[in-house]
Structure formats: C-alpha cells, structure tokens
Amino acid sequence: MSYAYRFQKVLxxxxxxxxxSLADYNHSVNEFxxxxxxxxxxxxxxxxxxxxxxxxxxxxxxxxxxxxxQQFVINLDKTIEHFQKLVMLSRNQMQEKQYILMExxxxxxxxxxMKEKHYQTYSENLKASENRFMDDLSIQSYMYKGN
Length: 147
Known about the structure:
Blueprint: H1 8-59, H2 63-146
C-alpha cells in the first residue's frame, strides 16, 4: 500500500502560485532597481552640472550660457521629479508583491504541515496494522504448534 496525500493537487497548485508570486516579486524588484538607478543618474548629472556652472560662474560666463545651463537644470529637475514618482510607485508595487508572496508562502507551509501530519498518521496506522498482523500470525502459529 503506497502513501497518497489527499490534498496533493491543491499543494501543487499552491506551490505553483507561490512560484508565480516569486517571479512577480523578482520582476517588481528589478523594475524598482531600474527606476532607482535612473533617478541616481539624473541626480548625479544635476550635481555635476551645478559644480560645472559654479566653476564657470567664478571664471565668468555669458548670459546665454547661464540661461542655457539654467534651462537644463530645470529640465533635469522635472526628470528627477518624474523618476522620484516612478521609484515611489515601483517601491509600493514591490512591497505589495512581497506581501502577496509572503501570503502564498504561508499557504504552502500550511499544506506541507498538513501533509506531514497526514503522513505521520498514515505511518502510525500502517505500523499498528502490521503489529496486528504479526500478532495474528503469532497466535495462529501458537495454536498450530499447541494442538
């Protein structure tokens, strides 16, 4: 008699859901990292531009050049603001996916624990059945030899 867990299909479905949730979470982490890298690059560009502008300002520069740098900084600020929103949204999405993954993980653990308990009960019943069978054999053997 082989062991068969009655909720094996459900466990497999839950494990598949967990794997899908893990893939979704990993994808959201990658999206967050990409957005954060873009934000960092823009902030770095702005910092370098401002340093360059201060250096040129101390040496003297034309009004057109100042206006050009100022416009570029304004555009960078808009880009930075966009990426800050994107980072915030992707962080929220990543946290949401993490929460879903944790829920799926808990569900799988519950079914695995149920399977463990079910197998333990099965093993105990099998052992008790074998012991009864051995007792019956011993009694039959005793009766056969005794008569």
